[in-house]
Amino acid sequence: MPLPVVSRGSTFIADHIYRTAVKLDTFWMQRVLGIELVIKGNPNTQQTPVVICNHQSWFDIPLVQQVITGNGPIIKFLVKREIVWVPIIGWICLVLNFPRLSRGKKNGTGESDFSIIQKASKGHGKTSGALLIFPEGTRFTESKRVNQKVPYRHLLKPKTGGLKMIKQHANIDTNLVDITIDYHQKNVHIWNCLRADPAKITITLEHYSLAEIDDIQTWLNNRWLEKDQLLSRG
Asked: Which residue of 67, 102, 133, 139 is surrounded by the most CB atoms within 10 Å?
C-alpha cells in the first residue's frame, strides 16, 4: 500500500505527470525519431481492463502506454522494488501503488512475490487503471526460444499464473486486451528503437471477455499460435 501521508492530491499529480509523460513519449517516438506507428484495432475504453502483450524490448512499455493510456486509463505493471529509488519514475510507481516485486526475495514486510501478485489480482478493478501482464515473463531472444523448444518462431512460452489469479478475482465484465507488437525484425533492443530502428512498428489490439475464457492455458496457447502467425506475416 502507498504511504499513509500520500494524499489524494499527490495521486492526482502523479496521474497527471504519468499521462503527460505518455504524450511526450508518443510525440518523441513519432515526431522526433520518426517511427511510423501502425495501430490495428480499437483502443480500449473500459477503465479497468487487463492487458496482455508479447515481450521483445523495454520499448514495449511506452508503446502499450500509447495505445491504452493515450485513450483511457493509466497502466499499472509489475516493477522491481528497487525502482522506487529512481527519481520521478520510481516516485510515480510508488504513489500510484504499482505492484513491486523483489525477484524471489521477501521484502521488508515478509511478503513474497507470489503474495504481492495475488494482492494485485484481488485489488484490480476496485479503482480505475489497466493491469499489464507479459505472459512470457521475460523478453524474447532467439537463444531463449531455442532453449524452450517452443512451437513458435517469434514468441516464448506463455505462462498462466498471473492471468489465472486475476481471473479468480476479476469482475464478470472485465475486458481483456490482447496486444501484439510487431517490430518487423527479430532481436529488437531498446537502443535500436532509440535510433529509429525499426522505422515502422505495427500494434494490433484484440478484445476478449475474461469471464468467457474457461481454460487459461489452452486459450493462451491458441492465442500465441495466432500471434506467431501474425508476426510471421509481418
From this structure: 67
Tell me if 93 sits within 8 A of 38, measured CB to CB: no
Could you say which DSSP state residue 33 is in? Answer: S
- Residue 126 in grid coordinates: 476496485
> CB within 8 A of 198, min separation 6: which ones?
35, 183, 184, 185, 188, 192
- 161 - beta bridge partners? none
Cβ of 155: how many Cβ atoms within 10 Å?
A: 22
Q: Where are the domains of the chain?
A: 36-78+106-233
Q: Tens digits of per-residue pLDDT, 136-179?
A: 988 899 999 999 999 999 999 999 988 888 888 777 788 999 99
DSSP line for 184-232: SSSS--HHHHTTT-SSEEEEEEEEEEGGG-S-HHHHHHHHHHHHHHHHH
Helix (H) or strand (E) holding 101: strand 100-101
In 3D, which of 110, 52, 117, 107 has the Cα closest to residue 78?
117
* Single pTM value for the model: 0.83
